């Protein structure tokens, strides 16, 4: 079964936040003093998550990515991972992590058949890491990267490009692709930091990032992007891995977007830039049968904004985007 939205875009990819809590305080994600976290009772339980994914699988969702906050802050996460791998129709399970708590679970992730791991890593310099994340956790993150490579788990490194913060890390991060089979993706900074946009104008757009990369790697070659990809994919001849650039703020990929999001409290977002379009947690807890929940989900999918700009324009009172990515679900 193929699920389509009202613009004819196939929907097959769920990004589900298992928690809004995080053990880092990244500059681009939340204020230094953190955010007000949800009480545990307000989070979807593992049973509710399993039921929701089963319902979505019957509609055509086949790929799931677990996000947060930081997923491994959620106790017994591996139990949920095993539960999801047993749901009929789910073909791919992936996870996004900051790597601080991940290394001890990598062998179990490999055994569970995890499809890939997205590792948030904005710098290869310990001091800059501490300045960006406001925590001194560089060593365990690098250990996680080493373990992922050793266990031959596909790895994508996500680096948010920030004016005055980590521009000097762009080339060193690309150098990781020379000898390692990793994808390094550079992401435009977005205003999802609990404070609003840090800059009046976004200096490091995806085009400027690409132009900068080409000053050091003039043979950078465009690859064919997979269907539904948010990244523009490139390869440096002679390197084992690839390079990507994600126009997260410019929103050039909306026309092929195949994903939906569910926050840790069970709110459906059919676009990263909307305010949430359906309270799934209430539906699950109010005793609705699966068929009724399916109908409400389909209604939401068929009222989807055509792009991130339209979704942002429809926010209540045209309020600017300012919530933390940890609250939204990465």
Fold and architecture overview:
By secondary structure, the chain is an alpha/beta fold. It has a single domain (3-328), classed as Alpha-Beta Barrel (TIM Barrel). Helices cover 30% and strands 18% of the residues. The chain has helices at residues 46-59, 77-85, 106-112, 126-133, 138-150, 170-179, 206-216, 280-285, 290-301, 308-313, 325-328; strands at 3-4, 10-11, 13-17, 63-67, 92-97, 116-120, 155-161, 182-188, 221-222, 231-235, 242-246, 259-262, 267-269, 278-279. Helix 1 (46-59) runs parallel beside helix 2 (77-85). The chain is globular.
Q: How many domains is the backbone divided into?
A: 1
Q: How does the major sheet shape up?
A: 12 strands, mixed
Regions with little confidence, pLDDT below 50 for 5+ residues: none
Question: Which homologous superfamily in CATH is the superfamily?
Answer: Aldolase class I
Radius of gyration, in angstroms, nearest whole number: 19 Å
The helical percent reads 25-40%
Shape: globular
**CATH uppermost class:** Alpha Beta
CATH architecture: Alpha-Beta Barrel
Walk across the major sheet and give the strand order: 9-10-11-8-7-6-5-4-3-12-13-14
The count of strands amounts to 14
* Class based on secondary structure composition and strand pairing: alpha/beta
The number of helical runs is 11
Provide mean pLDDT, rounded: 92
- Which fold does the CATH topology refer to? TIM Barrel
How do the helices and strands follow one another from N- to C-terminus?
Answer: EEEHEHEHEHHEHEHEEEEEEHHHH
- Beta-strand fraction estimate: 15-25%
